[in-house]
Structures are given as C-alpha cells and as structure tokens.
Amino acid sequence: MSTFDNTKSKKQESHDTVPPPNLISFMLKSWKPKPFKRISPLKNAEYFKLRRRALSAKFPGEWLILPTGHLKVRSNDQFYKFRANSDFFYLTGNLEPDCVLILAPEAQGHSDILFVEPNPGKTDATFFTDRVKGELWEGARLGVPESRGLYSIQDCRSLNDLESFVFEKIKKSGKPFRVLRGNSEKMENWLQLSGEAQASKDKLLASTLSEMRLIKDKAELKELALVIEATQRGFEDVIVRLKTAKTERELEGVFFTRARMEGNDVGYASIVASGAHACTLHWNKNNGKIQKGDLLLLDAGIEGNSLYTADITRTLPISGKFSKEQLEIYELVLEAQRAGLREVKPGNDFMAPNHAAMRILAEGLERLRILPCTAEEALKDENQFYKRYSLHNVSHMLGIDVHDCAQARAENYKYGKLMAGMVLTVEPGLYFQTDDLTVPAKYRGIGIRIEDDIVVTEKGFKNLSAHIPSEPKEIESWMRSLWKKSNRRA
Q: What is the pTM for the complete model shown?
C-alpha cells in the first residue's frame, strides 16, 4: 500500500493490536487468485482527455502537477467521506483519494501520467492490517492496470513510485513546473515551493482551470440536467413530508435520503428555513419548528455521482396557500427574477442580471414605502440602500462546485461577459428581519428567495430547472397534487 497520504502514523492507537507473525503467515495463504477483468473506459473519457489537451496547450514545456487530495480527519481516527478535488476530477474522472495527475512536457505538448493506489490484493499483509486502506476494512482499491483501462490513461503508475519520480524526473529536469496547491502538503514539501514567482505561477494554473470550467461541454450539461431532475424529486419528497413534519431537521433528512438514493451527496449544506429563519441567508442549523402559516425556504441541491450539483431554491407556503402579505412579497421577487433572466444572453455583462433584478426590487421596496428614499436614490453606488433587504447578488457560476470556477480572475468572471455554455444561477431574494423597524410589521419575518439554474445559449438562455414550479398558483397546485397522491397511497 502507498504511504502518500495524511493518515499514516507510527503510533499505535490504544485499541490497536499487533498481529503475530504466525497470524500474518496464515492470513497470506490459500486465497483464490484474482481473476483478470477487462475494464471498460469511463463514460465521457473522451471529454476528460480533451480537457487535458486544452490545459496542456496553455503551458507548453512545463510540468503540471495536480493532486486530488487526501482523507481529512473528522474525529480522532475517523475520516470525512472523501470528495475528489474538483479540478483533478474535471481532468480525469477519478474519485479516489491520494491520486496525482502529472502532465509531463514533451516536444509537442504533454504526456499524461496518473499515479494511483496499487492493489496488491491479498498478497500483502496490509489487506487486513491497514484499517485505513486495507481491503478487508475498506474494500478493494481499483489498482494500476484497472485504472489504465477505466480512465483511458495509458501511463498509470503506482503511488509507491511517485516520490522517486518527483525527485528523479521533475526536479532534475530543470524545467519549470506548476502545482495545484492546497491538496497535498507532502507533495508541496517535496517540490520545496517558495518565492512569489512560484506562487504566482501556481495561482495562474488554478485560475486557468477555473476559467476553462466557465464553459460547460455537452457531457457537463447532461450531468447537470440529471441532478436537477433528481433535485426536483427531492423537493417533492420534502413537500409530501411537509404535511406532517414537525421540524426543519426532519425535512433536511428527507432531502438527504433522496440525495443518497440518486447521487453522491448533497452539493452543499441544505438550507431548510421556516418562518423568520429564512431571513438568515445561510441558515443550515435547521433546528427550527415547522408551523402552519409560515413559509419554508428550501435551498438545496443533489450532487450526482459525477460530482456536478444542482442549486435550487423554492419558497413554499407550509399550509399550502400563500397569505396576502407573503404573496405580495413573493410576486415582487418573482418579477425581479424574470427581469434578471431577460438579461442572460451572450455578450451581456455577467452582472447585468443582477442590475436588472435589483432595480425591480428597489422599485418594489419604494412602492411598499420601505425605502427611506426613491428607488433611483437607493440604487446609486454611494447608497445601495436596497441591500438592507436583498443582501446578495443574484448569480454565481454552477457546475462541479456549487460556487463553481471560484479561482477565475475577476475580469473573466464577475466583470466579464456572459458566453454560450456558461451555467449560472439567477436567485433574487428579499429578507425582512423581525426587528427591522423600517419594515411594516405585517412583512417582518418574511424571507423569500427564488433560484433557478440557467445555461447561456447562442441566442439567450435555457432554464434547466424551469420544470420545478415557481409561479405562486403553480406552487399551490403542485403541493395539493403531491399531498393528494400521498393520501391515496396511504
């Protein structure tokens, strides 16, 4: 087994035992040989290869080193479930911990080298003595030949050879290198990263990968469509349970069940905010009570086995019907979203949907006599009074990460132009705090956000989550229908 990870320690835990030599000898005998199994290439392997070639073209003559990361300790000797580094996955499709992709410079482009965990099977005592990686503890790892077939990377090597490769090939070559930082302390120590020049080079590698990910290919759009459909089913599960639910935590668990049934996990900590909790943007304590007459703000997304995630928000009347005041604010937020969507088109500024949505919200706040001035005054850069009630911008990129492409340079993201293939959210909201004396008492404690996942097309946009109801009457009808079906099944 490889030691290229953060889990190895020479000290024994108090509950560990040392197997005697006779036991080791016995355990290594009389196992049926592992049969040869031809591994079919990973779905979309050709897309991963195209992405590697695109990255290669941007850094000719340089080593590119991309670790996926290691297990992280949750408590003592227990680890968080591993989640591959997004850039590493984007280039390989590999979900295993500890692996490293190296693009080795050649006269023309780069060759791909993937270092993976070897699988000695039951020929090495670690299969039962290593409780972090041993086969009897955690299940079999894929292995080197199998990885070669699955990922369609012909040069797959054992992680046992990684250290010598770094020192004998990369460091002695004299050629420049870039490393994706923050994923492997051991790798960074081997490479002895130091100085502002190297830091700048490594930062550009991270930025370049984020900017490549700004434009989604067909395979990515297909994966996003699948997780959005699964997320709708998760929302419907929540609505069915809403009829009898007592707590936010109960509803969070219902959605999580769907995420594990149809995907890898939730894409981010689910926000299940009832009543005034909806006025806390990232409310994920989810420890409140469900009460009739309140609204439920559900901001949740399923992360697929491909790691792409949905990010949807719907605000639902817990009773099944909006009150007059709730409907008044809901329709204002919905109008703002429509205005934002109209600005999603190639060539527009990334911030154009936000500016359009904020204008509608400010004008509505003026009509409600909440603003201390006119909408025009509130919208001025030196004032921005509307932000007291809206708080956040309406868009971020979406993909493998819920806040995708985070290392992209501002001039190519926030201050850049929308382009066909980009996927972003459009999610205006209004949040009236319970103690805000500028807000009429009848609106205090109302928090509403409406969020959809949008792909920019050649002529405009496509709402990937349009099939999830958002019009008030549609929401009420949707909830009634689900409750009726649930009653029939009961």
A: 0.94
